[in-house]
Amino acid sequence: MEKTRLPLHLCHELKTDLIINRLYMFFLGTALLALFYYRTTTLSHIIRTRETPLVPHLLVLISELLFTFLWVLHQAFRWRPVTRTVYPDRLPGDVKFPPVDVFICTADPSKEPSLGVMNTVISAMALDYPPDKLAVYLSDDGGSYVTLHAVREAWKFSKWWLPFCRKYELKTRCPGAYFSAEESSDGRFISCSEFMAEKKEIEKKYGEFKESLEKNSVNASSSASRDHAPIIEVMNDAVDSGQQEMPILAYVAREKRPSRRHHFKAGALNALIRVSAVISNAPYILVLDCDHYCNDPTSARQAMCYYLDPEISPKLAFVQFHQKFHNLSGHDLYDSRLNYYWRRWLGFDGLGGPSISGCNLYLKREALYGTKNIKNDIDLNHLKKSYGSSNELIRSISKKYEPRLSKDRKLTDTQAKEVGFIYFSVVEDTITGEYLHCQGWISVLVDPPSRPCFLGSCPTNLSDTLVQQGRWALGLMQISLSKYCALLYGRGRMSTLHSMCYAAFSIDPIYVLPFYVLAIVPQICLIRGIPLYPKVSDPFFIVFAFVFFASQLKHVQEVLSYGDSLMSSLYELRMWMMKSASSYLYASLGAVLDKIGLHTAHFTLTDKAGDDEQARLYQEGRYDFQASPVLIAPICSLYIFNVVSFVVGMARIVQTKSGSEMLVQAFIPLFGVIVNYQVLEGMVLRKDRGRISASVSLLSAVIAIFVLCFGSLIFIY
After folding, report:
1. What three-state secondary structure class fits 231?
2. How many CA atoms lie within 13 A of 642 on its CB side?
3. What's the pLDDT tens digit per position in 69-91?
4. DSSP state, 296?
5. Any stretches that span the bilayer, and where are they (predicted)?
6. Does the first or last residue of the chain, that is N or C, have fewer Cβ atoms within 10 Å of its Cβ?
7. Is residue 149 within 8 Å of 216, Cβ to Cβ?
């Protein structure tokens, strides 16, 4: 009895970080007030006297106001950072565990190789959870025969793999990770001849499994389609009374037509929600990306530490796990750890819970449906306005509904008809309306223990990183420009600080505006001898210096306190500059054009297929600049522009002896040039495949000269 009274989870407030954060807010906030006092008095003086051009001062003021606005929003993340601890050993017996559905999405086997996707599928099937309460669904948006064949082969291999994992209680249940590890066998059984014999046999089966997938993937690039009928197949050829029980495994390819919007991954997940409701209808859903395999089989039990807690469960919408990656190098050139986001998530969690991070979360189906608001006597036709036309789906919303999948796991005629109907209607339908809003719900972030629960693959070249960041930024900007903008839609639905967190996260891409202003305007003024900042002897010089160094030191402190190295802060800063110059630029333009109907947003997959040369450069800590000129040219143009402005500006300072009043403006381009010196290396010094091509360097130089000439003409006035 005493054991049941022990808490299943604990929340720990990071008091040291909290104190540091609030002191930082106070002192930097005070400095910013002084900074804007200087700007307003200087601007009013210029308007009266006209002794210096007004436009550059006005642009810099606007950029500093935008930076400050974003800074204020981000302080919500720092208000109350917390961490959490779970105690799965205190959970009740397996018989009390609720069912769990697992959703995995893939779209193109040429960019998301089948072997990696199937490793994720098999690792999900092998979770340390009652198999009769587990169902795994793979959504194949390409409708590829390559992926369908791979799922069938994965099902056959799992007949051998799952019993082996359970028998020897393996911690690593992703077969690819298990057999590729230097010490893949469990130390407790390494001297056991039976274990070694079984392991050898399973490894042979895995080799045959890999060979089968490789043979079938020869024409993977041509197998995916954007125009195909729906396909649903529940694997059932291995179910028999003499075999250990297996989870449900279903292959799902929703209908797609070029003329109809399909909403990309969101549409795929929406389809899985509907199909799973008819087949298994688990109250909890684990959402995974196809390259994020289950590294710790206890993740479901960790999530249940919250869902089986009667105090928090009724209001808990989802449990979010961290994203960790298995292919990181010691350098992390592209900031692929994403710790910048996860540090903010600690503060997010302290204010009501983080936002969904795309994958690695256990979601409550009831929270998604919004069934708390549905009365028992409601008209079914009214529900169809929000949930679509499927009668079976409407019935599944009831807590009393039990899916009727036969023992041989073959869909009945009724189920097949209903699932097919769901598919033909789901292309345009989404679960929308008055029921789908998570007002009153909270979420929690599970801190990564010594063993991450999920491991994915991250981009290992600059091109994929910028494309991925641009895709994320585009989605965030689309939200910010819609009626769901957090600052507006969040009012009354969550606390002010919580809505500030959502707003700060979703409008991050507008950093592009002040970034470009401060990367161009002070530099042009440096060349033309127009001072924008106070002299070294002016007391306000200390204010500007304090704002800059306090911000940089706070960033370093947060990186170090999170357990990362000092170099990580440099990698994060550099990638922030590159993202702002390229990804955020195109994402913001795309979102605005999409909003006014001049452009339709497109979803670009991150290529997860390996490349030996890219991997070598990444492991050596050298940037791979082989990317589209559209992505690289803005970065190179700004770099060349800042190098030229610094050299010419310093020559002018020496000639006119104006170092006191132009010091800050000389420091700005110098800082950018030093932080991004790898760009210079890529354009001038490197001769390997990862260098910046001469054509891109030339194009960037032309753009830089044009910006310099055009800006100089404008700033005359």
Report:
1. strand
2. 27
3. 999 999 999 999 999 999 999 99
4. S
5. 20-38, 58-77, 510-530, 625-650, 662-680, 692-716
6. N
7. yes
Q: How far is CA 504 from the centre of its chain?
A: 15
- DSSP 8-state code for residue 451: S
Q: Of all helices (H) and strands (E), which one includes residue 317?
A: strand 316-321
| 413 a catalytic residue | no
Q: Is residue 282 within 8 Å of 100, Cβ to Cβ?
A: yes
Residue 462 CB neighbours (<10 A): 25
Q: Is 265 marked as binding a ligand?
A: yes
Please tell me whether 332 is known to bind a ligand.
no
**Active site residue: 141, 335, 349, 508, which one?**
141
Catalytic-role residue among 17, 140, 429, 564: 429
pLDDT score, position 380:
67
491 DSSP β-pair partners: 494
Euclidean distance between CA atoms 614 and 622, whole angstroms = 9
Q: Which two tokens stand for residue 427?
A: 């292309």
H helix and E strand count, the chain: 27, 13
Helix (H) or strand (E) holding 716: none
Query: Going by C-beta distance under 8 Å and a sequence separation of 6 or more, which residues neighbour residue 702?
Result: none
Entry field: residues in the chain? 717
pTM: 0.91
Task: Please tell me the distance from the alpha carbon of residue 610 to that of residue 180, in angstroms, as a whole number.
Answer: 16
> Is 122 exposed, middle or buried, given 0-12, 13-18 or 19+ CB atoms closer than 10 A?
buried
407 carries a ligand binding annotation: no
Rounded Cα distance between 343 and 559, Å, is 8
Contact 290, 340 (CB under 8 A): no
Q: Please, which residues have CB within 8 angstroms of residue 629's CB and are 6 or more apart in sequence?
A: 695, 696, 699
Residue found by looking up tokens 């054991």 in the block: 3
Model confidence pLDDT, tens digit, residues 643-681: 999 999 999 998 888 778 899 999 999 999 999 999 999
pLDDT tens-place string over residues 499-550: 999 999 999 999 999 999 999 999 999 999 999 999 999 999 999 999 999 9
Q: Which amino acid is at 465?
A: T
Supply angle C-alpha 42, 43, 49, rounded to 5. Answer: 90
Q: Residue 553 CB: number of other CB atoms within 10 A?
A: 12
Give every strand in the sheet of 361-364, ordered side by side. Answer: 231-234, 248-253, 134-140, 100-106, 284-289, 361-364, 316-321, 442-446
Predicted confidence (pLDDT) per residue in 41-54, tens digit: 999 999 999 888 99
